[in-house]
Amino acid sequence: MKWLKEVYDLFVDDPKLAILVLVALAIGLIVARAGAKEAGGLAIFLVVAGSLWYSTR
User: Fold this and answer.
1) What is the pLDDT of residues 17-45, one digit of tens each?
2) Among residues 24, 33, 27, 10, which one has the least CA distance to residue 53?
3) DSSP string, the chain
4) What residue ranges are annotated as transmembrane (predicted)?
5) What is the pLDDT of residues 42-53, one digit of tens each?
6) How many whole angstroms separate alpha carbon 10 and alpha carbon 48?
7) pTM over 0.85
8) How deeply is 22 buried, as exposed, middle or buried, from its count of CB atoms within 10 A (0-12, 13-18, 19+)?
9) Which residue has better confidence, 28 or 5?
C-alpha cells in the first residue's frame, strides 16, 4: 500500500483527480488482460485526459 500512497501524494492538491487516475489504470489493466493492449492504453489515455480536462474546467 506504500506505492498507492506515493501515487496519491502526487495528486494531493486534487484528490478527485488521483482517484480518477487510479480508476483509469484499473480500466486499462482489465482491458489489457482481455487481450486488447492498444485499447487498454487508449482507455488510460482517454480517462486521464478527460480527468485532467474536468479538473481544470
Assistant:
1) 778 878 888 888 888 888 888 888 888 88
2) 24
3) -HHHHHHHHHTTT-HHHHHHHHHHHHHHHHHHHTT-HHHHHHHHHHHHHHHHHHHH-
4) 15-32, 39-56
5) 888 888 888 878
6) 14
7) no
8) middle
9) 28
